[in-house]
Write a structure and sequence with these properties.
The chain is about 5% helix and about 55% strand. The chain contains five helices and 34 strands. A hairpin with a 3-residue loop joins strand 32 and strand 33. The longest helix is centred in the first third of the chain and has 14 residues.
């Protein structure tokens, strides 16, 4: 109750401020020849889509402006604001983090850079570690909740995350620090060689050292250092034909703990690189995009002198084409070939290793059809041919109708996850051996949604879903096997949102109700049934400080089940309320800001046994 009173007081305080008439919401941006500032949409390469089929794709866009407003340090700070997503991290910044999208497993989310998959093939279950990704050189985040196999391919049973690197052409550098000498630095520079080409370089580094991951929060401090660089080059040969190249490298070095009583001598060194080169031909009615990509992971973990090594490589070719046939119909086709190679060698008291490769060839297509001037139907299909699991198809069908100020829609989609290299080829010291006869996991999802605008100031969204995962891969008798009891994993949920904007006030309220069940009908671990929160941006004005911009973020994480870190019994974790505040002031040369995270100084673990940061205060300046 005290926490709720504090939050209400903050809202009342800010609601009494004075505002100008200018709107800051991006939705109000329109082309205007009288303005020298154009409207630009930055978008990653969305596979298997066309002009009218995009209406059937559920997409949440988090812009650079929004990332700056919440004072994000890493990718988790951004994704935790999305109702469909729940994240658990094994300690403070830099520690391993798992994401559960729509109640599915942590290896059911596909992660991409500019539309290219980057999931690490040297992990045991193909999951992405969100704890090592920092935000300094990232331009935009796109979230695709729900099974997205027909758009992006395998792993996207719960959904997909797309990291967009290009599109930031404003020169600046930013530095952030706090009382503990932690810091962040970001530099962005664009070199315009001529009117037809550009070269953009971003640099970022983070040092963060706060609390012990597993011991008492007053014990030693586990720290993390991150270094990242993003280079983007593009060349226009004419008005339609564009050559582009994206390069991304990242290194994250993090200290971690073996246990609550064994806290020293553990360090992980996680390196990752992504290279993309492509050619895009774009005009009013059609688009063609060809891309070659190469991803590389090189990870080492030092456990008091025992070194575990993990490496993986991915090479791929991809071609997408779309065409607008007329004012009602659009078509898209494409193909992708991907070769995965992975290796790891785990030593010490537990020994495990794997070495293997696989490839996958896919063909896909889509059609979007607008009819009766108020209805749209979109159909997507993708056919994957995997070296070991064979041919598997995935589909998506979406119908949407406009009724007055509301968009109402229905969707059916299915998902696909091919087994990982470890599940296929791995071994360990306890007798595990890989199973080359595994079938892929598959899912079916049904959705209903609505989006209603009440004038220019209010927007209400509702989305309900129900899904099931079949042929789930389980560890049985020292081997991974497909479940054969004909009982599926089930998830269902309801998300709602209310957006309110007037003058300089922007308020976003959201809630999520989730049910995620195991085969025996019990709740899955680390998936809260109830989450809700708000995000408020507002301008405060007084005679002393002038104009200040405020951002308040509040998240309520509901009660959920977890595993006790010592007894391994299933326990219930209490709910928690997290409030973050950012205050910034624009000056002639840039922006001065202060960030307060975990304002109420909540002391909690997520998951059990792993400490999360208490209240933190940092301040910084962005020089333009």
């Amino acid at each position: 109750m005290v926490k709720l009173i504090i939050l209400i007081c903050l809202l009342i305080l800010f609601s009494k401020t004075s505002f100008g008439n200018e709107s800051t919401n991006n939705l109000n941006c329109k082309w205007d020849n009288r303005s020298s500032i154009p409207c630009l949409e930055i978008s990653g390469n969305l596979s298997n889509s066309s002009k009218f089929s995009k209406a059937g794709i559920n997409k949440i866009l988090i812009s650079k402006k929004q990332i700056d407003e919440i004072g994000a340090i890493d990718l988790i700070d951004v994704l935790k604001t999305v109702p469909d997503i729940n994240i658990t991290q094994s300690g403070p910044k830099g520690q391993q983090a798992s994401m559960f999208m729509r109640g599915t497993n942590s290896n059911h989310t596909l992660v991409m850079i500019n539309g290219v998959p980057i999931n690490d093939q040297s992990t045991t279950q193909g999951l992405h570690d969100f704890g090592v990704d920092f935000i300094q050189t990232i331009q935009q985040i796109e979230v695709y909740p729900g099974s997205s196999a027909s758009q992006f391919g395998t792993n996207a049973i719960g959904g997909a995350i797309n990291i967009v690197l290009a599109g930031d052409f404003k020169d600046y550098y930013k530095i952030v620090t706090d009382k503990d000498n932690n810091y962040q630095f970001t530099g962005n520079k664009t070199f315009v060689q001529d009117k037809n080409s550009s070269l953009n370089i971003k640099l970022g580094t983070v040092k963060n050292e706060t609390i012990s991951a597993r011991g008492s929060s007053k014990d030693e401090k586990d720290g993390v250092k991150n270094y990242s660089m993003n280079i983007n080059y593009e060349k226009f040969f004419n008005d339609n034909l564009r050559f582009y190249n994206h390069n991304y490298i990242r290194q994250t070095i993090a200290e971690y703990d073996g246990s609550s009583s064994d806290q020293f001598g553990y360090e992980g060194d996680n390196k990752m690189g992504s290279f993309q080169i492509g050619l895009e031909n774009l005009n009013f009615a059609s688009k063609q995009n060809s891309i070659f990509y190469y991803n590389n992971y090189d990870r080492e973990y030092d456990e008091k002198g025992t070194i575990d090594k993990y490496k993986s490589e991915v090479i791929g070719l991809k071609y997408d084409a779309s065409k607008t046939i007329n004012s009602n119909i659009s078509l898209g086709v494409g193909t992708e070939y991907k070769y995965d190679w992975g290796y790891f060698d785990n030593n010490g008291s537990y020994e495990a290793s794997t070495k293997g490769h696989s490839d996958n060839l896919s063909y896909y297509g889509n059609i979007g059809y607008n009819f009766f001037q108020s209805s749209n139907i979109s159909f997507f299909i993708r056919m994957d041919d995997h070296k070991l699991t064979g041919k598997n198809d995935s589909y998506k069908l979406n119908y949407e109708k406009v009724i007055n100020n509301s968009n109402i829609g229905l969707s059916y989609m299915n998902g696909l996850r091919n087994p990982t290299l470890y599940e296929l080829f791995g071994t360990d010291s306890y007798g595990f051996s890989g199973n080359k006869n595994l079938k892929p996991e598959k899912s079916d999802t049904y959705e209903v949604y609505s989006n209603t605008k009440l004038g220019d100031n209010f927007e209400i969204t509702l989305r309900g879903f129900k899904s099931r995962i079949k042929d789930n891969i389980e560890y049985i008798n020292n081997q991974y096997q497909n479940d054969t009891d004909n009982v599926d994993l089930n998830q269902s949920g309801l998300n709602s949102g209310l957006k309110f904007k007037i003058n300089k006030t922007n308020l976003n309220l959201f809630s999520s109700l989730l049910s995620s069940k195991k085969e025996n009908g019990s709740d899955t671990l680390r998936r809260p049934r109830k989450n809700y929160g708000l995000n408020l941006q507002q301008k405060f004005s007084n005679n002393i400080f002038g104009n200040l911009n405020f951002n308040i973020s509040y998240n309520h994480y509901g009660k959920h089940l977890d595993t006790h870190s010592s007894t391994y019994n299933t326990i219930e974790m209490d709910n928690r309320d997290i409030i973050d505040i950012k205050i910034n002031k624009e000056l002639k040369s840039g922006v001065l800001f202060i960030n307060i995270s975990n304002l109420l100084n909540e002391d909690y673990q997520k998951p059990h046994g792993y400490n999360q940061n208490k209240r933190g205060i940092n301040f910084g300046y962005r020089f333009n």
